[in-house]
Amino acid sequence: MARILLIEDDDGTADEILMELGRAGHAATRASSLAQAAPLARGDAVDLLILDRQLPDGEGLELLASLRAAGQRTPALVLSALGSLDDRVRGLRAGGDDYLPKPFALVELIARVEALLRRPNDTRETRLIAGPLDLDLLAGRASRAGRALDLLPRELKLLDYMVRRPGRIITRSMLLQDVWGYSFEPNTNVIDVHMGRLRRKVDGEGEAQLIRNVRGQGYVLDLPV
């Protein structure tokens, strides 16, 4: 059972989501404003955030960005009637791990929630060192040659996935299935947005490129020999 905080001001939408989350076996709490949500979202009190963007006292992405700036790594699913490409990109750049435009089917919402809540199997290694990369999965930290990488949870999962498959072409379909948990390919560029952000963080100015885009195929992690 996961602890989920739903930040949604519309009563009807909130009631439907809370009911569906309960049916899926999760313990969900609702906040209807940023003021109510802020104290509930901080720390490790919840396992997942589901937040609307347009709230009575401000923009939900502002709260999310402030949480990320403070080091909060709780996965976040952004809900919004603002569904253009620019809106989705803004949501992901603010720290969202996924973005679901309204209106949406509740079955898709639950599928995305379950994908976000998936964690590596306890039998997997939790400390990975590959070339200049050092990943501490339990602590949620990563570094390159001693330089700390400020990665969001989804970005850390992506890097974890690539570090375990160095030199191999990793397709978008592989990432959607194995990292996002989708059994279908949604009509979105979520992979490209996350990978672009990850590449900018991993490959700093003056550093050798580690993450390479293979046009029309996917991505490769090139580690020095």
The 3D shape can be described as globular
What is the makeup of the main sheet? 5 strands, parallel
* Fraction of residues in β-strands: 15-25%
* Helix amount: 25-40%
Q: Spans with pLDDT under 50 lasting ≥5 residues? A: 119-124
Query: How large, in whole angstroms, is the Cα Rg?
Result: 18 Å
SS class: alpha/beta
User: What is the first-to-last residue Cα distance?
Assistant: 44 Å
> What is the spatial order of strands in the main beta sheet?
2-1-3-6-7
Overall pLDDT: 88
What keywords describe this structure?
225 residues, alpha/beta, single chain, 8 helices, 5-stranded parallel beta sheet
Describe this structure in words.
It contains 8 helices and 14 strands. It is an alpha/beta fold. The strands form 4 sheets. It has a 5-stranded parallel β-sheet with strand order 2-1-3-6-7, with helices on both faces. A 4-stranded antiparallel β-sheet has the order 8-9-10-11, covered by helices on one side. A hairpin with a 2-residue loop joins strand 10 and strand 11. The relative contact order is 0.11. About 3% of the residues have low confidence.
